[in-house]
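Researcher: Go.
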Amino acid sequence: MGSFIMQWGDLSIQLLPEKAIYIDALSSLLIADPHFGKAAHFRKAGIPVSEKLHIGDLMIIQKLIQKYKPLHLYFLGDLFHSDLNIGWSDLETFAEYHPETYFHLIKGNHDILPEMVYRSDIWEVHTESLALGQMILSHKPMTNIPAEKINLCGHIHPGISLYGTGRQKLTLPCYFVSPNQIILPAFGRFTGLYIMKCGKNDKAFVIAEKKVIPVNFID
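Model: Structure:
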């Protein structure tokens, strides 16, 4: 309930209000930019941010796994925010509790942990984009996408601003959709938003009140 199903060729792509995509035909969940470990990174800099922020995000992923029972879970980059800290241990412990799911990482610009940290019995790490059927998974949005393919990616942390009467303004995270590309919202809640500029061929699906809602743009 609250999701939105897009059709791209023969592929059904379910946009979830939890800021994740589920593709039933591939038994796959896709999540972009969770930035686990960022709370500890900020605490190290003297900014008090609770680790409960990340625990809450892990519980959301657990509920998604329990609901959809995916064979594969793909993180589209920025899984872990920079330096190694206690958050990585929590993340690996979480993954160990779900041996029925294969965990994949398409590395992003913040995924800079030493290679030996990624345990081969837990993580399948992809340093470049990954072709998966009709899809190409990447961290950063691709610019040259084959006509018969669709690029699913993250990195941008897309959001849009909606305006109401009386100069009211509401900025929300969104799925940003172009003819053969979907930019996922950042899964992590402590990430900020980049306000997207929408062209005539673009669409946005905002996440509001546990629903994914298409937004119509007027030129």
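Model: The chain has one domain: 4-215.
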